[in-house]
Amino acid sequence: MGSGFHKGKFYSDLLLKGTLVCISSNKEHAMRRKAFPQAFTQKNLLEWESMIKRAVTVSIEKMREAGAEGKEVDILAGFTSMASGIIGEFCFGESFKSGEEEIHQIGENPNHDAVIKGIQSELLIPGGETLRNVPSYLQVLPLPILRLVLSSWSALKTPGKQQALKRDNLIQSTKHKTLLTKALAENEESLGLSDEVIVREAKAFIIAGTDTTAVTATYLVWAVLNHPEVKAKLQREVDSLPLDFSVAEVQSLPYLQLVITEMLRMYGSASGSLPRATPAGGKQIGEWFVPEGTEVSTQAYTLHHNPDIFEDPYLFRPERWEKRTPQMKEAYMPFAIGARGCIGQNLAQIELALSITAFLRKCPNARVASSMTDFDMEIEDNFVMSPKGHKCMVIL
Question: Which residues are recorded as binding heme (predicted)?
């Protein structure tokens, strides 16, 4: 932090370029971030407490309905639906589902919402924006990525979806203020942002607030269910909460916080390399001099599994955080650190705490389905990691 390193070329190759996630210059990033200083604070997020709790509760109830009579339920699909609904409300004042009843048929359709897929295809798939302009008759070509881009953007053009991405609608929402209206209306720094930039940041928030949260919530439940002693202890703690518990009450549970911290150490969704370019003149890093322009990286997964810092690093052991050492604190970076860290980490922490609490309260007898294999939950190393099986089947 503060050492002059800028984000590496990797970020300029993503179609998220030009957003907070990918802006290379630290100075430019600092200016852009000023447009959103209050939107993601704990205080502001608590104004949305009832909406978040409702979205979590509805998602868990839909999972329970889908899991009637011992049916297997894909909780990754369930949490993806939950996370996309929440970030949709935050950004646009409406969920990407047109109502609670339209949440995915959990266990039957593990695919993302078409709107999420459309945005992903533009922002994350190389060439996504270019492919969007290809004539639709080329869908006959046997290229899955091309067909995904074209079909998903057709879904995005449905009435209301494009209109929701217009600056005037973001600012003059008639339903209630959103994260973006709050940022745009209340911060002078935001007035210089073009419509294109605002729309792009909105799409980036959707990406950043969907898969990351869904994957971490899934690994959180999976890890707890696979460790009976952890589950029993956590179950007693969440059962001690009042019926209508608040976010503050949930986040004050000491063992729950240890469990979430340990899960993020082992399965943080942004565990991969975060490439940085060595600044002009080069830098001395430890005993090595690194020439300018050289890409270097501090990888969370490697740090989080360093046996010199974390004893038995591949064991899920929440109690290790009861006596955290200075080295553990320094190495822990599931949301990155400093000014370039994840702007939405407070929201993620709220969603994770509410998700596991509601899950254990509503489904105390849940267990991992016998159809699941170790391979299914191995980490697939993408920019945002995910289980290799792209599912997590549970009996509720």
Answer: 342
Residue 211 in any domain: the answer is: yes
What is the Rg, in whole angstroms, of the alpha carbon atoms belonging to the chain? 21
In a domain, 308, yes or no: yes
List, for residues 160-207, the tens digit of each pLDDT value. 444 444 555 555 543 456 666 666 665 555 556 676 677 777 777 877
Measured CA to CA, the distance from residue 287 to residue 101 in angstroms comes to: 59
In a domain, 46, yes or no: yes
Q: Are 379 and 388 in contact (CB under 8 A)?
A: yes
| pLDDT per position as a tens digit, 219-251 | 999 999 999 999 999 999 999 999 999 999 999
Q: Quote the CA–CA distance of 110 and 100 in Å, as a whole number.
A: 17
158 contact partners, CB below 8 Å, separation of at least 6: none
Tell me the one-letter amino acid at 377. Answer: M
The number of CA neighbours under 13 Å toward the Cβ of 92 is 23
Query: E strands, the chain, where?
Result: 6-7, 72-74, 276-277, 283-285, 288-290, 295-296, 367-368, 379-380, 386-387, 393-395
What span, in angstroms and rounded, lies between the C-alpha atoms of 90 and 357? 22
* Residue 295 falls inside a structural domain: yes
In this structure, what CATH number is given to the domain that contains residue 388? Answer: 1.10.630.10
Q: Is 22 annotated as a binding residue?
A: no
- C-beta contacts of 236-245 below 8 A and 24+ residues apart: 238/356, 238/357, 238/360, 238/361, 239/360, 239/361, 239/364, 241/357, 241/361, 245/357
Number of structural domains, the chain? 1
Q: 34: which 2 tokens?
A: 């000023």
Domain limits at 369? Answer: 6-395
